[in-house]
Amino acid sequence: MTQTSVTQPFMDVLSGQRQAVPPLWMMRQAGRYLPEYRELRAKAGGFLDLCFTPEYAAEVTLQPIRRFNFDAAIIFSDILVVPYALGRSVRFEAGEGPRLDPLDTPDKVATLAAQVDAPKFAPVYEALRRVRAELDPSVALIGFCGAPWTVATYMVAGQGTPDQAPARMLAYRHPDAFARIIDTLVESSITYLTGQLAAGADVLQIFDTWAGVLPPREFDRWSIEPTRRIVEGVRKKAAGAKIIGFPRGAGALLPSYVERTGVDAVSIDWAAEPSLIRERVQNRVAVQGNLDPLALITGGAALDRAIDDVLENYAAGRLIFNLGHGIQPETPIAHVEQMIRRVRNHR
Ligand code: CP3
Fold this sequence. Notes:
This protein is α/β, with parallel strands linked by helices and about 350 residues long. It has helices at about 10-15, 35-45, 45-50, 55-70, 80-85, 105-110, 120-135, 150-155, 165-175, 175-200, 215-235, 255-260, 275-280, 295-300, 300-315, 335-345, and strands at about 70-75, 90-95, 95-100, 140-145, 205-210, 245, 265, 285-290, 320-325. The chain has one domain (about 10-345): TIM Barrel. A hairpin with a 3-residue loop joins β2 and β3. Coproporphyrinogen III (CP3) binds next to β3 and β4.
């Protein structure tokens, strides 16, 4: 199939036009599997220094685009810059992941600032402007934030946990205090995402990495509803803003997430059930995903088979090819190249 005067295949998929060859990028495409990332990361010192030095953040964002020619760049930052801008202490300790001051009682929640210190976002906006200026116009630039639920799980526990028990407990025991965290994150995220659009982002992704640990009623209240408010709030300030949601692990709750949040696309994890996705999700919005990152580590015939499954399941409709979650640091670069060749040769 020929594409006439298509400038951004990625944005075209979001606007309703299926592409014969699905546009492709990878979650966490700027990261530790790349030697050039590891080198700059060592030079920057701390992880947050890397995020907040526009020259470095822009460079790291562009590294995977130069190497692999992806259809989209995602600004290099982290979902925890929002609690940081709310004045919370946020540290990344080598090999241990994020550490924050836990907000695990109503008394502590009462100390949470009502609003972000907006100037703290300025370096992210500057990095976006730099990337947009260097990026080929055919490549889409993605801004992002964490969904309130997922960001709250780290704020409450003060670190990552296997099942987000601390946030789930606070939400059951003290729903009003928990709602205060969520409401603050909704407003902060609207500010942050709108700023990213103004700085040159073409599209936004909302990462709800921990959506899948919630029972349906809680999922409605803490994942769908806050995300719906963010989508509405952003579009009030930036009409027609394109937004991708990623409620990881939502499974059979995906159709209602799509219906109620108003997102233009959803990112799906590798456990998604294909007929449910095709018949009740991809019929309404574009779908992004969903290669198992472990198949990408494995390579060879197992990788080819996993890629073909994604294409067979979803390429007849609007698809953005991606992984079902972020690429792992131990992934061989040759396997990424194998994936790109196979997807781009797909007919
Ligand atoms: O390339 C990209 O995708 C853009 C950059 C990006 C990062 N984090 C950089 C990063 C994005 C989109 C994120 C999102 C993010 N951060 C999420 C949601 C998506 C997901 O992957 O689940 C979450 C839950 C976080 C919070 C976070 N940041 C954790 C739990 C960790 C530690 C785990 C780990 O992978 O090390 C981080 C650190 C982090 N954020 C790294 C990167 C490249 C690794 C840190 C390093 O380089 O030392």
